[in-house]
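This part of the workshop introduces the protein records we will be handling. A record pairs a protein's sequence with a compact description of its fold. Comparing a sequence with its tokens is the quickest way to learn the format. To make this concrete, we reproduce a full record directly below:
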Amino acid sequence: MNISLDEKHGFRVARIDEQFLTDEDIDTAIDIVKSVFRSGEPRVAISFGPAVFAYSKVLAFIAHCYRVAHIWQATLVVIAAAADFIDILEQTHLARVVPICRSEDALADILKGVS
């Protein structure tokens, strides 16, 4: 799995494009998110590409990253372009605790609400 990290609108963005993530991929992604928070970054966005499906491992990964962000008193945002992905986040109520946007450009609007 390849996760790219970038800065966008005041967020450190971790991009994940793999359709299905193995347990090892999830562990690697969690370690990357933890290291970003540990480095002092107050805002992290996890960007899921259009091919990524929101199945149980991905939902558990998002919930785990939310808990890590909460411990670090930081902000976590999920970026998901696929409407199906967002629907699942809303149905599982993750959307109630983790801000969601459809594009990286929408991070600027999210930032206005968390500054």
